[in-house]
């Protein structure tokens, strides 16, 4: 273990510069918490470092609630100029959230407040930009053609936020924002979907399910780019990949699973299990339990909502058994699989224990 004293000695000896020593110390600090005492081969995951972060998150929620209440009360007194009022409050709110982020994220390196601030910043951007560019009377008539632009601009603002503060959770929100933009554009050109199932059924009319599937693959590829740039998972790039996998898996599984179940063919359930087995294979190879868990979690929900009493208990029982087996022998299974796949870029995948 190289400690602070070793870094100081290295600077004094001219082995590393002060900037390099500071970068190493910062990297070591960022790896503490979820990564500290982590078993070899386990997947880093961290939502908060201590109860003080929860304390701060509660404070942020109360602050945001009070801000919204003040905004609403002001709008009631100036209903004619509601657009200017919302834009002004959103601009001020963005400045306040940015300053809070500078302190809690950049300086204090807190995890839970970073997630909360990302959500609040995006919500604030959506409200301000929607007030600036959308038409409330068109929305009242279910005409959403004015929403794609403010939604895209809010997502772009969140990307700027991520570029400055590098909050991994914000990357997942960016993916969801782009998904919302694509769906709004599709609804503008092809009409509003009749039900939420149309977003995932490939057999339904309209391009919605194909957009969901395409975006799911795109998000998965971006997640793999982050993962393969950090195979040992010691930087925030790996955390970015984690949250993108959480978004990609439901988009892919929900579309494929619902389309298979909707087909009503005799072997649709067996085909669904085969698809889940393929997702499990991919998750093991890339060493992402989050990808598989998000996929199976969605499948369990689908089993109860779509299958109902016709096969749901058996399907859920089978998935539970598979998860327990994988959880107990993940590393052994992965090591054997990778030995059978020497054609993969093993140097860019997480090493086996």
From TrEMBL:
Name-wise, this protein is Membrane protein
Mostly located where? membrane
Membrane as a keyword? Answer: yes
- Matching Gene3D superfamilies: Ammonium transporter AmtB like domains (1.10.3430.10)
Could you tell me where this protein is found in the cell? Membrane
Recorded topology in the membrane: Multi-pass membrane protein
Q: Which UniProt keywords apply?
A: Membrane, Transmembrane, Transmembrane helix
Q: Which GO terms describe its cellular component?
A: membrane
User: Which residue spans traverse the membrane?
Assistant: 54-76, 82-100, 112-133, 145-163, 170-188, 208-228, 240-261, 267-286, 291-309, 315-333
């Amino acid at each position: 273990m190289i400690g602070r004293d070793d870094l100081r000695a290295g600077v004094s000896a001219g082995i590393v510069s002060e900037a390099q020593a500071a970068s190493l110390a910062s990297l070591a600090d960022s790896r503490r918490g979820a990564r500290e005492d982590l078993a070899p081969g386990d997947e880093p995951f961290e939502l908060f470092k201590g109860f003080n972060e929860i304390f701060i998150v509660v404070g942020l929620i109360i602050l945001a609630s009070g801000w919204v209440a003040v905004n609403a009360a002001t709008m009631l007194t100036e209903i004619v100029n509601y657009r200017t009022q919302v834009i002004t409050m959103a601009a001020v709110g963005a400045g306040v959230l940015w300053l809070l982020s500078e302190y809690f994220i950049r300086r204090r390196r807190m995890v839970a407040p970073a997630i909360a601030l990302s959500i609040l910043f995006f919500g604030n951007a959506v409200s301000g930009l929607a007030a600036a560019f959308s038409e409330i009377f068109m929305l009242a008539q279910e005409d959403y053609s004015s929403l794609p632009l403010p939604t895209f601009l809010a997502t772009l603002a969140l990307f700027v936020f991520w570029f400055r503060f590098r909050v991994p959770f914000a990357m997942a929100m960016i993916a969801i924002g782009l998904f919302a933009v694509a769906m709004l554009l599709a609804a503008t050109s092809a009409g509003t979907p009749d039900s939420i199932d149309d977003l995932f059924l490939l057999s339904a009319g309209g391009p919605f399910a194909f957009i969901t599937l395409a975006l799911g693959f795109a998000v998965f590829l971006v997640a793999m780019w982050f993962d393969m740039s950090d195979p040992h998972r010691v930087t925030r790039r790996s955390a970015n990949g984690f949250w993108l996998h959480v978004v990609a898996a439901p988009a892919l599984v929900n579309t494929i699973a619902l389309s298979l179940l909707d087909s009503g063919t005799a072997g649709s359930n067996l085909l669904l299990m085969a698809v889940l087995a393929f997702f499990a294979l991919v998750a093991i190879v890339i060493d992402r339990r989050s990808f598989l868990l998000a996929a199976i979690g969605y499948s369990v929900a689908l089993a109860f909502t779509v299958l109902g009493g016709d096969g749901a208990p058996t399907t859920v029982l089978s998935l539970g058994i598979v998860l327990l087996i994988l959880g107990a022998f993940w590393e052994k299974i992965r090591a054997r699989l990778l030995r059978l796949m020497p054609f993969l870029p093993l140097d860019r995948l997480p090493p086996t224990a």
